[in-house]
Specification:
four-stranded antiparallel sheet; 10 strands; binds adenosine-5'-triphosphate; ATP binding; nucleotide-binding; ATP hydrolysis activity; Rossmann fold; alpha/beta; transmembrane transporter activity
Amino acid sequence: MAELYEVRGVGVDYRTPAGVVSAVRGVDLDVPASGITVLAGPSGSGKSTLLRVLGLIDRPTAGTVVLDGADVGGLSHKRRRALRRDRIAMVFQAPPDNLIGHLSVGGNLRAAAESAGRETDLGVLEWLGIPGTRSWRVEALSGGQQQRLAFGCALARSPSVVLADEPTSQLDSASALLVLDVLTGLTERGVPVVAASHDSELVDRADRVVRLREGEVVG
Ligand SMILES: Nc1ncnc2c1ncn2[C@@H]1O[C@H](COP(=O)(O)OP(=O)(O)OP(=O)(O)O)[C@@H](O)[C@H]1O
């Protein structure tokens, strides 16, 4: 089966007043088009940086990124933005960052679906474990419920992949487990997930774990 991502020799350097920081160095990585892949490693190991490269937010300083068979390195800013909109859903660690605060729960699902030209399926609220919340303001949901809704919004866009940066790090363990069930549910619906995380429960749930240390893949 073709890989979703083929990453070869990727490096990311940040220029800082103190000099160049090599956040990611010489990374080779294949990400399958199914299941949960976790980028694991200690703080500062380059997980978020690599995820931003996979999300076509940042361009690597070196190397190539192939998404669904197409090298995305030479694409224009506009084309990368279109690919991001059509193919990639990102979920960040702070639940409110993933939602539109002035819209209702249903409004968030609708906005996500419409942004990708899809039909809205409010039935997903049942699956997310938040039935009956359609007209609620998102701030009335707990952090864990907001994060599950964020993944529901990601699914509403029918992306090729969901990228999640530390999706459980701001949640208590019970809420985090419910979010992990949603991640598993996404993969059962055919949407692969790539998550950057230290969460051992999430690492246990992964189909594939890529361990990073000081910007390099170590296993
Ligand atoms: N915008 C930036 N400018 C300069 N250095 C940066 C920038 N972003 C990240 N870095 C540095 O790059 C390295 C990797 O950071 P990154 O955030 O990717 O690691 P991480 O594994 O996701 O860490 P954490 O788990 O703490 O989020 C670190 O040394 C970090 O300080």
